[in-house]
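Run log // design_07
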């Protein structure tokens, strides 16, 4: 495999921007998503709301065949009970086009992920290895399309439960009691939801929108809840959040290196940048073997991206970094040549036993310290901060051989049903997969899975 096999998508997915575009992207992302800018945007949204005399309006976008949407649906009644909000609910189709790089994997991951995360949040999602039968999906969609927002809030979870459980009789009973929209009305409802979502600059299901900001599913509700509480909207300010982010707790039991935590990072991923060091620390704290398996950034693999998706990811990563207390935001875009140069040094860094430090240094430099890795001086700083010899490194820049290693990692990631970064996989002592998930917001779940594996060993 060589870099030439991948096409430059151009536009928002440009994998080799010129100097000006690289500078503009870096400057814009750095300025837009500082904590101060984000707070200012929230304040402006609140000022507009007050001036217009509008309620605290939250919009929710539900994708019927999406596992994350079913988790979110279970929270809707509690959300309107806790907070003095007007909750509008819309049906939407799934993402498409350049917002859906791997259509064959996304829904499968949503089912697998929802099954594993649901009990941790006190929610329910049945194991569902196969795609939904089309007749059940269509019937559930027709029932929900017939509801106004109040009916949707009250019944979406029950409809989803019947559908995901494969209970056709329960769906028929719900249709008889709640009504069922015609196909034309279903299409109109989906088109209406999709148009509104697009006008608000998003593309996915299980999304909440409030005051110019997006919140994904139950995993980002803690951001929305904190914002609403800060505005005095909570009816019970002393109560804990409905869905708080679980803490990343390494636990008390220690492994002897029999378990393996695989980490799949890339060097241009905001989510990788805010989680890589924490993943490394989790492995060290728990005693599991760490296996770092870097891959190319998605746009350098020929995967297109849209401006809307890129903007949301950078905003969300900044918000998540702030909540976790992780340095982030002074950004110098490393896409293209800087990434290739860094990866050309990676095999040597592995030989020197400094591969983890090298990836950490590069990510910190590009996403938190404002180091311009497009210049040799910047790459020199990254190399030396990793404890490596720049004189040796400079002679090795551009060497081949790294491409095959990264392609092997990409194939392994895809075989696990994953495609984005950071992805993680926990293997047991027999190298069998215990858990494989995508996302920096799943590290806490891997910490719990490690402890459960160690508890099982103790009890054996």
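design_07 sequence
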């Amino acid at each position: 495999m060589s870099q030439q096999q991948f096409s430059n998508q151009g536009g928002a997915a440009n994998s080799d921007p010129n100097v000006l575009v690289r500078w503009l992207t870096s400057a814009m992302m750095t300025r837009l998503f500082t904590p101060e800018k984000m707070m200012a945007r929230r304040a402006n949204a609140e000022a507009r709301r007050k001036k217009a005399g509008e309620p605290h309006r939250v919009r929710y976008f539900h994708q019927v065949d999406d596992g994350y949407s079913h988790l979110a649906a279970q929270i809707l009644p509690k959300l309107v009970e806790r907070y003095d909000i007007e909750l509008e609910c819309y049906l939407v189709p799934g993402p498409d086009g350049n917002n859906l790089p791997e259509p064959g994997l996304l829904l499968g991951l949503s089912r697998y992920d929802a099954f594993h995360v649901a009990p941790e949040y006190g929610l329910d999602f049945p194991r569902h290895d196969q795609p939904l039968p089309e007749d059940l999906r269509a019937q559930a969609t027709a029932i929900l399309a017939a509801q106004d927002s109040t009916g949707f809030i009250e019944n979406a979870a029950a409809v989803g439960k019947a559908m995901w459980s494969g209970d056709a009789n329960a769906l028929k009973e719900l249709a008889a009691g709640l009504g069922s929209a015609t196909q034309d009305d279903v299409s109109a409802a989906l088109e209406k939801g999709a148009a509104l979502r697009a006008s608000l600059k998003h593309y996915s299901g299980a999304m909440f929108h409030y005051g110019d900001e997006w919140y994904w599913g139950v995993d980002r509700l803690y951001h929305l809840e904190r914002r609403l509480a800060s505005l005095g909207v909570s009816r019970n300010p002393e109560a804990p959040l409905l869905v708080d982010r679980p803490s990343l707790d390494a636990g008390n039991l220690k492994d002897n290196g029999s378990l393996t935590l695989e980490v799949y990072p890339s060097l241009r991923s905001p989510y990788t940048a805010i989680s890589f060091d924490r993943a490394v620390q989790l492995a060290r704290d728990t005693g599991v073997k760490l296996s770092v398996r870097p891959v190319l950034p998605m746009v350098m693999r020929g995967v297109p991206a849209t401006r809307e998706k890129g903007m949301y990811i950078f905003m969300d990563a900044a918000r998540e970094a702030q909540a976790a207390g992780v340095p982030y935001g002074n950004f110098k875009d490393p896409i293209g040549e800087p990434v290739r140069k860094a990866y050309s040094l990676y095999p040597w860094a592995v030989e020197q036993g400094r591969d983890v430090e090298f990836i950490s240094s590069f990510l910190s430099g590009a996403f938190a310290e404002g180091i311009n890795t497009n210049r040799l001086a910047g790459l020199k700083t990254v190399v030396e901060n990793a404890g490596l010899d720049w004189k040796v490194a400079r002679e090795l820049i551009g060497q081949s051989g790294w491409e095959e290693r990264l392609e092997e990692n990409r194939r392994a990631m895809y075989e696990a049903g994953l495609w984005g970064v950071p992805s993680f996989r926990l293997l047991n002592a027999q190298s069998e997969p215990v858990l494989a998930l995508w996302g920096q917001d799943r590290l806490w779940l891997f910490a719990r899975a490690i402890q459960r594996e160690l508890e099982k060993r103790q009890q054996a």
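Residues 1-13 have pLDDT under 50 and may be disordered.
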